[in-house]
Amino acid sequence: MLDNIRIVLIETSHSGNIGSAARAMKTMGLRELYLVAPKQGIDQQAIALSAGADDVVKNAVIVTQFEQAISDCSLVIGTSARLRHLQNSLIEPRQCGEIAIQSVKCGEKVAIIFGRERVGLNNEELLKCRYHLTIPANPEYSSLNLAMAVQLVCYELRMAFLQEIPVATIENIVKTTIHLATAQQLEYFFEHTERLYQSLGFIQNQGVMQKLRRLYQRAAVEQNELNILRGMLTAVEKHLDFHKE
Amino acid sequence: MLDNIRIVLIETSHSGNIGSAARAMKTMGLRELYLVAPKQGIDQQAIALSAGADDVVKNAVIVTQFEQAISDCSLVIGTSARLRHLQNSLIEPRQCGEIAIQSVKCGEKVAIIFGRERVGLNNEELLKCRYHLTIPANPEYSSLNLAMAVQLVCYELRMAFLQEIPVATIENIVKTTIHLATAQQLEYFFEHTERLYQSLGFIQNQGVMQKLRRLYQRAAVEQNELNILRGMLTAVEKHLDFHKE
């Protein structure tokens, strides 16, 4: 699904930014990169900064005109500052992720456009975008690096993509292999604790046990952890018995 | 509110990454940066890559030990791969943002830890974190640049901060009066536990302490609970001393 989302960089000044953007894309599962009239082509710097994402850089399609990069796309989203005259079409990255994934699911081809490092997209380009994507940055310092912006947007695309997958995640499957202590086992532990620390004179009222119960309930104690906790109680008891003899 | 969230970078190899991370932080409204034993100090490269965020770089606090960077924090979150033995404490950036902002609202000081460029955090460091933050990256290529990871996490912190958090749940209201133990206090407790149970012959290798650390990190131990746990250790010690005499 993410394969149907294209990242387009317009007149990028620094080839390093192309490499970093490619890396950012690939970490989030995107692959399709278009470069419109880059100031520096794909060079050693671009490859170096792409780290293991040199395939994305090498497969990048270089075109001379903006229109060539979007002609086959039915949904075009352009990054932009929070401009007043665009306010009706402004979206943030999270919404962008949701809209793009929905569109792809409906068979659309999506392009997300990132402008020049310093001046972004020009007005003509902005007018070719259905939505205008703005990152809710610190108003006092909103200068995100180009590749950072690509990273954030691709992250939200991936998050929206992952949310569409309802099947049990790997995490849930793995979780079944953890065995939490049963209520009964916890109860034995609490009784054991209370017995021992009463005999030590530390527990003299119910308050302490209530607090300990709350703590260990909250912790969702696993069986192997409970074994350790019980072992600690027994270790203390043994020493007390030893001294009694 | 974002001022009470500290970003900690551990043994960063490249000073450029420090600069880029500072820029990423500032674009999202964060300012407090701690550097633990950076391989390259703050140099021209760090300043250059910070762009307009050189104030964040120049105000960074440099310490030699991890503990110094977290000792006054009551919520410590460490970035990590999706490790099996951490599965109970794994969170993703979005959840991290929500948890951190909730904690800050309750008066807590939060630290988010980013490990070394290649190898991340070591096991000992991971054990000092209550939550383990993992970015849901492309499983086939999950190699995010350090500053990119900082950018994503700070973005989610900002998003959580900007969201009009609706009505505080009862739980949250109650939480405002709760004071969690600091990392330093927890560390004293672990050391105390280890000392005592080694002397009792129960602890003979590192495995037990690692499991206990994981359990108590997960539990988010409150100060009054920690007082009880320490009191229990002392109660045992007193009896041992008594019998010795």
TrEMBL record, chains A, B:
Q: Does the keyword Glycoprotein apply?
A: no
Q: Name one Pfam family in it.
A: SpoU_methylase
**InterPro entries per record:** Alpha/beta_knot_MTases (IPR029028), RNA_MeTrfase_TrmJ/LasT (IPR004384), SpoU_MeTrfase (IPR001537), tRNA_m1G_MTases_N (IPR029026)
Identify the residues that the record assigns to the tRNA/rRNA methyltransferase SpoU type domain, covering every copy: 5-155
Q: Its Enzyme Commission number?
A: 2.1.1.200
Q: Which GO terms describe its biological process?
A: tRNA nucleoside ribose methylation
Decide whether keyword Calcium is in the record: no
Which reaction does this enzyme catalyse, per its entry?
cytidine(32) in tRNA + S-adenosyl-L-methionine = 2'-O-methylcytidine(32) in tRNA + S-adenosyl-L-homocysteine + H(+); uridine(32) in tRNA + S-adenosyl-L-methionine = 2'-O-methyluridine(32) in tRNA + S-adenosyl-L-homocysteine + H(+)
* Record key words, sorted: Cytoplasm, Methyltransferase, S-adenosyl-L-methionine, Transferase, tRNA processing
Single GO MF descriptor: tRNA (cytidine(32)/uridine(32)-2'-O)-methyltransferase activity
Compartment(s) where it occurs, according to its Swiss-Prot or TrEMBL record: Cytoplasm
Provide the Gene Ontology terms for cellular component: cytosol
Protein family per UniProt: Belongs to the class IV-like SAM-binding methyltransferase superfamily. RNA methyltransferase TrmH family.
Subunit text: Homodimer.
Q: What this chain does, per the record?
A: Catalyzes the formation of 2'O-methylated cytidine (Cm32) or 2'O-methylated uridine (Um32) at position 32 in tRNA.
Its recorded name reads tRNA (cytidine/uridine-2'-O-)-methyltransferase TrmJ
